[in-house]
Amino acid sequence: MSSILPYCNLFPTVVNDIFYQSSENSCVRHSLLSLSSMISDYRLRRPLDRFQYQYIKTLQLIQRSLLKTEVTESIAIAVYLMLCIDTVRADLDTARKHLRGLFLILQQLQEKPVLSMNGDYGPITKVLR
After folding, report:
1. How far apart are CA 1 and CA 7, in angstroms?
2. What is the pLDDT of residue 91?
3. Domain chopping of the chain, boundaries
4. In the 8-state DSSP scheme, what is residue 129?
5. Helix axis angle, 73-88 relative to 14-24, nearest 10°?
6. 94 pLDDT exceeds 90?
C-alpha cells in the first residue's frame, strides 16, 4: 500500500483509519472512490470518466464543509487524498493549493481539536497534540 499512499510505513494504521472514516464521512468516501477509480481506470486503459465524477464530487463536498466551517479530521483526510491524486497526476499547481489547504486545516485542528464520534481524538489530532 505504501506505493499508493505515501507514509504508510510511518503511520501503519493510516489505511484502516481512512477506510473507517470513509464509512462515516462522504468527503472521505468520495475521495477514496476517486483514488480507486483513477487507479483502476488507468490500469485498464479506460476513460477516466468515473474518476472525474468522483474527483469533482469530492471537491464540492469539501468546499461545502469548509463553507460551513466544519473542519474535521475527515476533511483533512479527504484533502490529503486529493493531494495524493494531484501529485500522481502531476498537476502540481493544484497539488500545491491542496497542500496549502491541508496545512491550514491541520493548523486549525491543532488549535481547536475535535473529538471523533466515539468521544476520542482521532489519529491526526493525536499526532498534532
Report:
1. 10
2. 92
3. 14-128
4. -
5. 110
6. yes
